[in-house]
Design goal:
alpha+beta; 50s Ribosomal Protein L17, Chain: A; three-stranded antiparallel β-sheet; 6 helices; 13% strand; globular
């Protein structure tokens, strides 16, 4: 029986699930918004709330607990210095899950996980994966122009 087993397994092994959720929490805190599937969004929402609660506590032990979970020191500093003070008067519910639609490839239900009180700068920034890939492609292939195998 599954009594009191509230964790969502998401079809992954324990280590894979924990690593994925840690990465997603880090991304939410860094970018203040991510797009993912519904099930993953619901799983990451509670973890983001726990990290912001640690940020509101603000003591050394809370910092060390956050650093043990969040992947980046800069994101942890942002959590304690910028994000947590914005939610000082709020009792909970620091992020929301908004249904977005369905992914074209496999019709998976997609959602947006975002902080309730995003900064205007975060709202303006739009990072697209294609833009990142294009930039990397130009960077790596830029030095290779004129080189390589040519048809003879």
């Amino acid at each position: 029986m599954r009594h009191r087993r509230a964790r969502q397994k998401l079809g992954l092994s324990t280590s894979h699930r924990e690593a994925m959720l840690r990465n997603m929490v880090t991304s939410v805190l860094e970018h203040e918004q991510i797009v993912t599937t519904d099930a993953r969004a619901k799983a990451v929402r509670s973890l983001v709330d726990k990290m912001i609660t640690l940020g509101k506590r603000g003591d050394l032990h809370a910092r060390r607990q956050a650093l043990a979970f969040v992947r980046s020191e800069t994101v942890t500093m942002k959590l304690f210095d910028q994000i947590a003070p914005r939610f000082a008067e709020r009792e909970g519910g620091y992020c929301r899950v908004v249904k977005k639609g369905f992914r074209p490839g496999d019709s998976a239900a997609m959602s947006v996980v975002e902080l309730i009180d995003r900064t205007p700068q975060a709202k303006k920034e739009k990072t697209t994966p294609t833009g990142k890939i294009k930039g990397l492609k130009d960077k790596f292939l830029g030095g290779l122009k004129g080189q390589g195998s040519e048809k003879k």
